[in-house]
Design goal:
360 residues, alpha+beta, Globin-like, Alpha-Beta Plaits, 5-stranded mixed sheet, two-stranded antiparallel sheet, 11 helices, elongated
């Protein structure tokens, strides 16, 4: 039933035929199914019978299928049924013809791919071959009286139907497996995006406080263990409450987003940037010595000060105060380093804002 409409899904699996069929593989399968010159002779007689009865066989086949409620969704349209009958007729009239050539194998493989794409359960696919075998066998029985010749033809018919089933089911299974792998990859990607989203502050798209503290804790212990430098910047937007009161929370949100963006553009990918709370950000400068910290902080401060905030038709000045503190051999834990950078921030704000203060 390869002319049935495909099921609608978010992914399209390509290519049309993912199998590369070698001559050696064909010879191996022919030997496995024990296809012999006798089968070739029998095939001529089978094809002669099919030529005479193919229309009756196909009509009887679809009468049977349309009586199965589970198949109604596939056979509800008269135009589809007409196309399916044509396809089924072509299939029967080419049964076993040139089976030693790759075209025959590829055609049978495409049948399996088509049935997987429309979502037809394997039990119906396999069952349909059983119905076809019975319908063809009945015509052979009525046409040939010699029991030995008839038995030999039925064996040949069974061989070719089994070959076609094997080729179709192999491709069916391969495509179903590929589809499952794609779906699993999509689930993993979705889980990764959800996990990443849970790590980020929704508004500013930097680490939220929970994951900021986890990242800083890990970096602190790494730096402590290997004797590497670590500098923290505590950044606070100046007069943020006034901005919210005078221009609304939308303006405050824009300010937070702009500052977050400028901070991220001013540091390295390896550095840790997060929203500590409200209008406060913390930056962990990885492997950054005490003398470099204030320079980087000043670069951040200057970039923010030189980038006015535009709200509708208004342009507003935006500045930050930054406290800078570096880890020393006497720093017992991350909490103490945070407190030290917070004291430096208080100093920057107390001495006029829009500046950097550092504590050693």
């Amino acid at each position: 039933m390869s002319d049935l409409p495909s099921r609608q899904e978010g992914t399209s699996l390509q290519p049309e035929n993912p199998f590369q069929i070698s001559e050696a593989a064909i010879r191996s399968q022919i030997a496995f199914f024990h296809l012999t010159p006798r089968d070739n002779k029998n095939l001529h007689k089978i094809q002669s019978c099919l030529q005479e009865h193919v229309t009756d066989i196909v009509e009887a086949f679809y009468r049977h299928l349309t009586q199965v409620p589970e198949l109604a969704q596939f056979l509800s349209d008269s135009e589809i049924i007409a196309r399916l009958k044509q396809t089924q007729t072509r299939y029967l009239l080419t049964l076993g013809q040139h089976y030693e050539q790759s075209d025959y194998w590829e055609d049978r493989i495409r049948i399996g791919l088509a049935h997987e794409r429309i979502g037809l359960h394997p039990k119906w696919y396999l069952g349909a071959y059983g119905i076809l075998f019975e319908l063809v066998a009945e015509r052979l029985v009525s046409q040939y009286r010699d029991p030995d010749a008839l038995a030999s033809m039925l064996v040949t018919l069974q061989k070719f139907f089994t070959l076609d089933i094997a080729l179709g089911m192999e491709s069916y299974h391969a495509l179903a497996t590929q589809r499952l792998e794609q779906l699993l990859a999509q689930v993993e990607e979705a889980q990764h995006r959800l996990q990443e989203a849970s790590r980020l502050d929704t508004l500013t798209q930097v680490l939220n406080r929970k994951f900021l503290m986890e990242a800083l804790e890990m970096e602190f212990h790494r730096s402590q263990r290997f004797g590497h430098p670590l500098t923290l910047l505590f950044i606070d937007i100046d007069h943020f409450k006034r901005l919210n009161d005078e221009h609304g929370h939308t303006a405050g949100d824009q300010a937070l987003q702009q500052v977050s963006d400028l901070i991220q553009k001013s540091v390295r990918p390896a550095d840790i940037v997060g929203r500590y709370g409200g209008e406060e950000f913390v930056v962990g400068l990885v492997e950054c010595h005490a003398e470099m910290g204030p320079l980087i902080a000043e670069r951040i401060r200057l970039k923010i000060a030189l980038t006015p905030l535009t709200i509708d038709t208004q342009t507003l000045a935006l500045t930050v105060s930054i406290g800078c503190a570096s880890m020393t051999s006497d720093t017992p834990n991350l909490d103490e380093l945070l407190k030290k950078s917070d004291r430096a921030l208080y100093l920057a704000k107390a001495t006029g804002r829009n500046q950097v203060a550092a504590l050693v």
